[in-house]
Amino acid sequence: MKPAALSRLGVMFAGLASIVAILPNLLWMPAWVSVVVLLALAWRLLLEGANGLPKPPAWVRMLITVGVVVYVFFEFRTLLGRQAGITLLTLMLALKFLESSSRRDALLVVTLSYFVTACQGLISQSLGLTAYMVLAVVVITLCLRVLNAPAQRSDMRLGATANAGSSLRRILLALLIPLLHALPLALIFFLFVPRLGTPVFGVPEDAIEARTGLSDEMAPGSVSKLYIDDSPVMRVRFEGTPPAQSDMYWRGPVLWNFDGSKWTASFGYSRMPAKLDGLTRAATTFSYEVTLEPTDRNWLFALDVATTAPEGAAITQDFQLVQRKPVTALKRYRQSSDATLLSRIEDSRASVMALTQPADRNPRTQELAQSWRAENPDAQALVDRAMRHFREEAFFYTLEPQTLGGNPVDDFLFSTREGYCEHYASAFTSLMRAAGVPARVVTGYQGGYKNPGGDFWVVRQSDAHAWSEVFISGRGWVRVDPTAAVSPDRINRGTDAALRPNRYENFPWLRDLRDRLDRISDVWNRSVLTFNDARQRALLEPFGIAEMDWRFSASALTIGLLGTALLVLLTLWWFHRPAPIDPLAAELRRFRTALKQRGLAAGPELGPSELIELLSGHFQETPSAALAFLRGVNLARYANQRADPSQTGLIRRMNTRALRQIRRLPLKLSA
What we know:
Elements: H1 8-22, H2 31-49, H3 58-76, H4 82-99, H5 103-119, H6 127-147, H7 151-154, H8 164-192, E1 217-218, E2 232-238, E3 249-258, E4 263-265, E5 286-292, E6 299-300, E7 302-303, E8 313-315, E9 321-323, E10 331-337, H9 348-353, H10 363-375, H11 379-392, E11 396-397, H12 408-416, E12 418-419, H13 421-434, E13 439-446, E14 449-450, E15 457-460, E16 464-472, E17 476-480, H14 483-486, H15 488-492, H16 495-498, H17 508-529, H18 533-540, H19 550-576, H20 583-597, H21 608-618, H22 624-638, H23 645-664
Parallel strand pairs: 11-12
Antiparallel strand pairs: 1-4, 2-5, 2-15, 3-4, 3-7, 3-13, 5-10, 6-9, 8-9, 13-16, 14-15, 16-17
């Protein structure tokens, strides 16, 4: 049997389902994939509106399919990874729509659209994308409902008839009701199914798309480029009074190695666990909770410096907070910090490592530092001399410094004298090493923004910062931020306050909108994305349930299934319940039944006026009670008078008298 041909309306709705499913993937897929997808969609849609546009022959479609599979494999080196799999599925959806010619093809396109939409949750679980996925599911279900409509309705042009609006409302109602039916069961699954630490369907780590953010390298321009990224890195809730904004240094990668231009981490030393045994806590410590966005990096961020590590993480000897696996999903952890801990650590090995730098690079910087050392070899005096140099000389804090040459520190210190935090941290650390003072670069974030409508601080990519640490005998490691000598506003009030014009200076409503979205995202993150097994157990403890075993989960799922089934049955009953009986219509039905029993043809097509004529022609005597009843019905229904319960009761009594009358009155013999 030949499949039913696909109508123009069917093509439109199958294309709509494909477009809403594919659209978010175009933002991250390779450019060539986006071009192929858009060409396939456009070609099929143009086939319906352009006469003479040929459909690709079967051998061309097969060649394109094989070429796409091969290209995806060479692009991602796999067909099973997260990005590779979604890219391949997206391309297959577009190509299937290109060759669709029957209603069965269109239904397959819509079904594939559901899968592509669901796969977007593997890329991101942000509130914005989740809202889009919900909208996409509604639209795709609408397309499925239209494609499954009867033939006489599927070819209807929306808006072409007077009933188009009501038909569309019926379709929307029909697709929203099943979605509402699924909500209770989804809630049961979310709350009571045991939650695992890792996804059931694992994906290769190399399939994860790299995100922008801090790396374990720093070169001129690597930190300043993050200023244009206003996306959140983490949200922090303090227990008690938070530190001053100028003291909020969120420690990230520590950089030891310097080749004259670029700083990199020491992966051996930076992975060794710190020895914190025997160290007492200072009187002032800070406790807080961090909700960290996915970074695809192994390090976590903590207020300088961390004294505890979350489960699965450790504090290294240079006080980084690292874990074995990259942060590929939203991570929520509690943390405590002690700002004085660095100064209580003596580490002779680290001080030796923090003196090395290439002898053939940046000679003027080395000469300047050695002249300072000749004047005063004291480490603290050298630090003060360098800070005074940045403060008193004509240095400028800017996002757009001049390009540096082969000896970037020399060029910065003696020629351009303008830069961002990485320029000052690199130059200061290089000066200290050249002067014989052990020093290293620390990258992370500085400051934060207190959301005015919430109880949390937001740290953004634009707060990325670099500073220095020097090792002074008897004092341990000491933090020095040379940026503060050039731009105190950067440290005290944030990046936006230090740069003019800042991004919100002329658009305060944008800041208000951002704050509102931050609060909504915070609720979403805390309520949904970080709902783990610990919070699940805490939810059930008040009910005396200490552990969620398979018996409890099975019982909860059974209750959820029964509740959903009951909701479905109630919905079916509501929409298929018999229409309420009109009291006047019920009395007329009784009256017609009595006439039929007397042999008169009183069908439902006869109204009260026609029944009056029927009575007048068939009874020997005038049925006054029956005529009064019919006139009363006419008056109640057609005389623009609203019948009340008392009037309805009167008509019922009149009908009772009329029925007694027509049962006893004789009919005319001619009848």
